[in-house]
Amino acid sequence: MTELHPSAFYRDASGQLTVSGMPLAEIAAAHGSPLYVYSGDGIRQDYRRFASALEAVDGTVHFALKSNSALGVIAMLANEGAGADIVSGGELARALAAGVPPKKIVFSGVGKSADEIGAALDAGIGQINAESPQEVDAISQIAAARGVMAPVALRVNVDVAPETHEKISTGQRSTKFGVSISQNEAADLYRRMHADANISPAGLAVHIGSQILDLDPFERAYSALLHFGTSLREEGLPVPILDLGGGIGVDYENGTGTDFTAYGQLVARVFANSGFRLGFEPGRSIVANNGVLLTKVIYIKDGDNKRFVIVDAAMNDLLRPTLYEAHHAIQTIAPGGADIGPADIVGPICETGDYLGRDRMMPELGAGDGLAVMSAGAYGAVMASSYNTRPPAGEVMVLDGVCHVLRQQRTVESLLAEESVPDFS
Ligand code: LLP
User: Fold this and answer.
1) What is the bridge-based pairing of β-strands 35-39 and 291-302?
2) Which of 16, 89, 104, 377 could hold 116 in an S-S bridge, CB 3.0 to 4.6 Å?
3) CATH 2.40.37.10 spans which residues of the chain?
4) 133 class by beta-carbon count within 10 Å (0-12 exposed, 13-18 middle, 19+ buried)
5) Could you tell me how far CA 188 lies from the centroid of its own chain?
6) Which helix or strand (DSSP H or E) is residue 297 part of?
7) Residue 83: φ, ψ to 5°
8) Residues 279, 357 contacting (CB under 8 angstroms)
9) How far is the CA of 283 from the centre of ligand 1 (A)?
10) What is the pLDDT of residue 130?
């Protein structure tokens, strides 16, 4: 996929790194460090680009909350008309709190608990994507107890390898996801759903993985889904929706916006005149390049043959480099001098795996200098933890020239207040 659109994060005439013209140094001074900064303008623009690339097809966009579930981000996207793709009762509560209309909520995931299914039915959400016969039965029973019909789509496994990192590949039969379309397993289950008095079959869903940069795996998966959906229709079964999942990759090297045009053309071509309504669940491609993690240098440590830049953000704030060896560009927020050599940018956590970037060419740096870890808008703050009793970073969003606080940094006091100590006396 070609990447055409400039980043919301750029340097102004004086060389300061800005978010839509607002210097990140000012934001850091006002809101502290470490801090997630999102470009609301960029997120809104990328959502609009996605929606308009798919204008030619009859489809609904459900933003994948798992990529960034700040209420302020969800609410802004809901305002743009986006629905929500959720994977837990917690994300259901977030979607509702942010004002997403229940009918525009899709519930994905392999392990929905009875409480979560009940909450989804009580809220009247639009679609539950079931992933196993046991789950279909559980949904049916919970719906029966409430005297409602559950709108259930079946997530199928089309056995397509997405050519991405193995930890985020979901398309092959060897993974835990979906019901296989080979050997009648999925067809039999869909027939059972149709015969079930408490289930209204909503269609089929597929999601083959994430950070997919090549269109070919999408084409193979979508063609298999279309073929399977058509065969069910030919039996006379209702298959209103084909939910195509998410997975479109982004350019982590350059941070430019994704051009969705080619993806839109592929979808239009595969599903032309098929008569299915389509669903989309993009996450990363809407938010990844519209967020940075701001951090500050604490010390510079010259190792034997290495320079370590020790910063105040760590793997508890941004886990992706440690977990997936993911590359995030790292830039100085002030006008940077000439590079003086490579450095590892590491956090204060007591693990060698605690790094944000390794062997990066960096200029001379000193204590207090600000750095921006780029492309951190997706799977950043949502994957944070309080490991080492480090309160996870706060989040702000710049929209229309105003910097809004979305979430304060947690405090040590609030972390301790969640716990209790047994009475040992
Ligand atoms: N729909 C379903 C059913 C999913 O499982 C996912 C992501 C999405 C949609 C959104 O996919 P996206 O458009 O964001 O690629 N933590 C990993 C990514 C995990 C993705 C899991 N599923 C990372 O940091 O790369």
Assistant:
1) antiparallel
2) 89
3) 9-38+289-415
4) middle
5) 32
6) strand 291-302
7) -95, -165
8) no
9) 7
10) 97
Residue 155, ligand 1, Cβ within 6 A: no
248 within 8 A of 212, measured Cβ to Cβ: yes
Q: What pLDDT does 4 receive? A: 56
Atom in ligand 1 nearest the alpha carbon of residue 378: 24
* CB of residue 42 inside a 6 A radius of ligand 1: no
Instruction: Please work out whether the CB of residue 64 comes within 6 Å of at least one atom of ligand 1.
Output: yes
Q: Rounded to an integer, what distance in angstroms lies between the CA atom of residue 238 and that of residue 191?
A: 10
* DSSP SS3 for 37: strand
What confidence score (pLDDT) does residue 41 get?
A: 97
Beta bridge partners of 362: 341
CA gap 310, 162 in Å, rounded = 36
- In this structure, which residue's CA is closest to atom 5 in ligand 1? 207
Please give the distance, rounded to the nearest whole angstrom, from the Cα atom of residue 64 to the centre of ligand 1: 7
Report the distance separating Cα 324 and Cα 95, nearest Å: 28
pLDDT in tens, 133-186: 999 999 999 999 999 999 999 999 998 988 777 777 777 777 788 899 988 999
Which regions in the chain score pLDDT beneath 50?
1-3
CATH 2.40.37.10 is the classification of domain 9-38+289-415: yes
- Residue ranges matching CATH 3.20.20.10 in the chain: 40-287
Helix (H, G, I), strand (E, B) or coil at 141: helix
**CATH superfamily to which 40-287 belongs:** Alanine racemase (3.20.20.10)
Ligand 1 pocket test: which of 77, 281, 324 has the largest number of ligand atoms within 8 Å of its C-beta?
281
Helix axes 133-146, 114-123, angle to 10 degrees: 50
| β-bridge partners, 277 | 241
Would you say the CB of residue 332 lies under 6 angstroms from ligand 1? Answer: no
Q: Which phi and psi angles does 79 have, rounded to 5°?
A: -60, -30
How far is 292 from 19, CA to CA, in rounded Å? 9
CA distance 369 to 295: 8
Place of tokens 């229309």: 400
Q: Which two tokens stand for residue 410?
A: 């947690």
Measured from the Cα of 281, ligand 1's closest atom is 9
Ligand 1 within 6 A of CB of 41: no
- 249 Cα nearest atom in ligand 1: 15
Radius of gyration of the chain (CA): 23
SS3 369: coil
